[in-house]
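Private note to self, pasted from the team thread so I don't lose it. Backbone tokens:
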């Protein structure tokens, strides 16, 4: 027997040379010797007491069984790991993922001459090892997803999706995630010798669908082997006992499994700091905590709002574990040449490089919720060496989820901004929608699934006094209850003894653009159908289901492209008059938990943001608190979507950055303070999730599974017929300054407005049943001397045919009038606003959203001194027959005068409970108008 006095012994076996080398590269002080024809290498695992014996079995269960017994007899190891590659059997398993064998199925045994009768045989992994592994986190070297699941093992390779073997596996081992050829032999040998705890750790190198040859040729075996080896040594390091404590005892049962409650579990059952989600794994632990913690159960992908869909990868796929393998070798060489320890960053698998030399930019387009956090994390991450030694820096921009989805689906154009390499919408639903809407080259850029960055459940948030009147925090509500309240909003608060709060008013974002709006609408359907999973297109089209959704929409005060609109307006009301004004504005708003936390911490836009008017200030007088819907609670998972057009040089950096974001310390610094849960859905490391911030960290998050892309697409198609209808007057500035040239465009501001007309009156905005009209304004002297404004199209249904317009619809006539606008005169802003609000109050529709869209490129000038801004603000505000004025500052010189820290247009919007939009860069007018129209 070989000398094992240097510490506890672990044996690691591999079948293939590529697997062997991946493990060998992580060991030190290796010595080689041969026993009965088998070559063993013995070394140590740096930083731990472990002595590791390494051997290669060759392919096949029989070989694996022989070498396993031989290794046991020679070394009496405390644990034995079989490490290697495998084929993936499930659609959501990707190249580079790691599967740890929860149980091993032997699929080779059969009876009968027809070969059709199989005796399923299986072995469970040691319970204490499974418990230990399930509570671990893995460092950046294990870049793929690690999962504990069954593995099928036999002597026949599955390389066709449809075959007799494939039918066998689906029929008898349908929960198996991976397939390989050695682990059944290992487990049979462990059963024979007794007392040997074994664990199978496999990296996915192909999809067992006929593409193995192509995948292997593309380097997938090296990728998978490197990932599996990284996971194996991470597990072994976390099992290392402190010097002087007992090593792993021989407590195995007859079948080789260790009993629960054994001494080995007492020593190893709880990993040291760094294996639990709540703390950063700065180095492999050597000391277990005094008391084992209860392991967390990771949320499933459906709990995170992510549907498991098949994933097909081509040979051009470059996974990060492959990057790790290549870069690790390059880094080792560099260190050997330079002798410097500063050539790498200990927190990353990639070598750092000076930001000044970062000539390659990796662009991430992210939702506003996380864009600031991502930007700051990217700044700390600095620059890293990508493929070919390129120095890569990460840049982050904020892009609305729905807007980015449409741009990617049709093919990203110059007018859409910087084309992203990585896209992070607020929820995976947008990826499913993009794939459904896209075709041809655009679809090829979109993967079928993506990993989360962080997570946040949807809540029904209410001002705290209102929530407490309904029993918060002890009570719970759901979408069904919300529908009951919304069906008769005028009498709801009176029915619970709070008549002073008026009607029940709901804030909800537009599901065409906003994740919270999309998820809230899906959840309403789930509540009606009494499910939390599959919806069909028939469910979307059901008259009864649609009536239920319409009931909820009846109480909506207005919609919005993001939750920023509602929360900014709520904060403005709170600043103006405290609880009284805040409760007049909104009764409830469907927003993510993180938005509630951020709002209560003083971020008025409901997100950590440095944008103008979104900077942190004092806490609000009236906080929001969260109800977690009991009948269906979707989770925004902020997926990290690596797009197929990314240059090869950037790919390892993109993958490494996601690993970096998943690190507990990075999550704790850049995301936890603003109310996000981890990418696994855990809340342990986010102290901001507290009742003081309106959140309940231990809330029961109801089961939810997002519909597929086709159903979501159908929902977006029919939603304009379900939402509360609009009654809107569009008022456009036609003063002389609208004839100014816009640098870099070759056109005037008026010409750019004409180009953006479809965002105002196109079919993607107002529905045919919405009532819309149009005014223009400048000053009375240039418009005939009577008023500063001229009505061009009377308010009426968009789809109505106009008799005096030769049968053209109102939609067509509105577009024609925009084409005929001619700039002239000064800007009679105040008088026009006052007159427009008066006109809308005379034409008020209590069943609709009554609003004005005001677009101007200047400020009140060239007109009499009356009315003043103070006069106008006093007259247009108030809760009775509220007409919200959404303002758009158009052009670089627009709205420059500040009043009380806000511009004139911001004052006008705030006085009416609306939102002020900024199109001071005329090039983005179409995008801004799309956001404005999303309120209706």
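Design output:
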């Amino acid at each position: 027997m070989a000398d094992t006095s240097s510490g506890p012994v672990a044996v690691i076996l591999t079948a293939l040379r590529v697997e062997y080398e991946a493990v060998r590269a992580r060991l030190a002080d290796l010595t080689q010797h041969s026993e009965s024809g088998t070559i063993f290498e013995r070394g140590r695992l740096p930083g731990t007491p472990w002595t590791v014996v390494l051997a290669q079995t060759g392919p096949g269960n029989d070989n694996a069984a022989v070498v396993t017994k031989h290794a046991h007899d020679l070394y009496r190891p405390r644990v034995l790991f079989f490490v290697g590659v495998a084929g993936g059997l499930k659609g959501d398993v990707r190249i580079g993922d790691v599967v740890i064998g929860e149980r091993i199925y032997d699929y080779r045994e059969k009876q009968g001459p027809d070969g059709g009768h199989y005796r399923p045989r299986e072995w469970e992994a040691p319970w204490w090892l499974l418990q230990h592994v399930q509570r671990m986190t893995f460092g950046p070297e294990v870049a793929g997803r690690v999962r504990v699941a069954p593995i099928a093992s036999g002597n026949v390779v599955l390389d066709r999706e449809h075959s007799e073997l494939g039918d066998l596996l689906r029929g008898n081992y349908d929960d198996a995630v991976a397939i390989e050829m050695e682990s059944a032999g290992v487990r049979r040998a462990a059963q024979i010798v007794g007392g040997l705890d074994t664990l199978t750790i496999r990296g996915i190198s192909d999809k067992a669908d006929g593409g193995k040859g192509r995948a292997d040729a593309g380097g997938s075996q090296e990728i998978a082997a490197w990932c599996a080896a990284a996971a194996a040594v991470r597990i072994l390091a976390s099992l290392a006992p402190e010097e002087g404590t007992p090593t792993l005892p021989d407590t195995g049962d007859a079948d080789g499994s260790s009993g629960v409650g054994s001494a080995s579990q007492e020593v190893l059952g709880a990993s040291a700091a760094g294996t639990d989600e709540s703390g950063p794994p700065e180095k492999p632990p050597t000391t277990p905590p005094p008391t084992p913690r209860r392991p967390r159960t990771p949320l499933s992908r459906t709990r995170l709002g992510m549907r498991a869909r098949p994933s097909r990868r081509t040979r051009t796929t470059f996974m990060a574990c492959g990057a790790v393998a290549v870069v690790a070798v390059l880094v080792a060489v560099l260190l050997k040449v330079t002798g410097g320890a500063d050539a790498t960053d200990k927190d990353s698998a990639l070598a750092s490089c000076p930001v000044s030399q970062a000539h390659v930019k990796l662009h991430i387009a992210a939702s506003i919720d996380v864009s600031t956090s991502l930007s700051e994390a990217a700044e700390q991450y600095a620059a890293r060496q990508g493929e070919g030694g390129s120095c890569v820096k990460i840049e982050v921009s904020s892009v609305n989820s729905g807007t980015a989805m449409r741009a990617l689906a049709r093919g990203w154009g110059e007018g859409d901004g910087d084309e992203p390499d990585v896209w992070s919408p607020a929820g995976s639903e947008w990826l499913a929608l993009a794939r459904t809407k896209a075709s041809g080259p655009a679809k090829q850029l979109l993967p079928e699934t993506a990993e989360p960055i962080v997570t946040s459940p949807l809540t029904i948030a209410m001002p705290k006094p209102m929530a407490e009147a309904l029993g918060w925090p002890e009570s719970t509500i759901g979408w069904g209850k919300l529908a009951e309240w919304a069906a008769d909003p005028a009498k709801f608060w009176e029915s619970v003894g709070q008549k002073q709060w008026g009607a029940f008013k709901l804030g909800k974002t537009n599901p065409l653009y906003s994740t919270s709006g999309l998820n809230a609408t899906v959840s309403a359907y789930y509540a009606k159908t009494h499910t939390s999973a599959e919806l069909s297109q028939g469910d979307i089209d059901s008259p009864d289901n649609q009536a239920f959704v319409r009931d909820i929409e009846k109480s909506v005060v207005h919609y919005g492209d993001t939750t920023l609109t509602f929360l900014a307006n709520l904060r403005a009301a709170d600043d103006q008059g405290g609880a009284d004004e805040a409760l007049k504005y909104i009764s409830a708003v469907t927003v993510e938990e993180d938005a509630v936390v951020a709002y209560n911490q003083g971020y008025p836009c409901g997100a950590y943001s440095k944008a103008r008017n979104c900077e942190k200030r004092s806490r609000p007088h009236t906080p929001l608190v969260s109800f977690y819907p009991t009948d269906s609670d979707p989770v925004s998972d902020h997926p990290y979507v690596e797009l197929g057009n990314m240059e090869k040089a950037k790919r390892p950096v993109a993958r490494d950055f996601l690993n970096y974001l998943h690190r507990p310390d990075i999550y704790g610094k850049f995301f936890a303070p603003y109310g996000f849960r981890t990418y696994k859905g855990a809340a342990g490391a986010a102290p901001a999730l507290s009742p003081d911030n309106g959140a309940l960290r231990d809330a029961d998050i109801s089961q939810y599974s997002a519909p597929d892309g086709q159903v979501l697409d159908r929902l977006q198609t029919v939603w304009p017929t379900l939402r509360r209808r609009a009654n809107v007057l569009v008022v456009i500035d036609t003063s002389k300054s609208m004839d100014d040239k816009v640098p870099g465009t070759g056109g005037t501001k008026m010409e750019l407005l004409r180009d953006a007309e479809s965002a105002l009156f196109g079919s993607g905005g107002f529905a045919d049943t919405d009532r819309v009209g149009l005014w223009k304004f400048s000053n009375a002297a240039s418009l005939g001397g009577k008023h500063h404004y001229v009505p061009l199209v009377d308010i009426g249904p968009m789809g109505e045919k106009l008799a005096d317009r030769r049968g053209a619809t109102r939609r067509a006539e509105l577009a024609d009038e925009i084409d005929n606008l001619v700039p002239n005169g000064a800007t009679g802003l105040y008088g026009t606003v006052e007159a427009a609000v008066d006109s809308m109050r005379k034409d008020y529709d209590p069943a609709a959203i009554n609003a004005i869209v005001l677009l101007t490129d200047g400020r009140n000038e060239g007109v009499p001194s009356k009315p003043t801004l103070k006069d106008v603000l006093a007259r247009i505000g108030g809760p009775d027959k509220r007409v919200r004025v959404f303002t758009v500052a158009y052009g670089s010189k627009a709205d420059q005068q500040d009043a009380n820290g806000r511009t004139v247009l911001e004052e006008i919007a705030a006085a009416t409970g609306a939102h002020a939009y900024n199109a001071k860069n005329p090039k983005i007018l179409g995008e801004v108008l799309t956001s404005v129209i999303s309120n209706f």
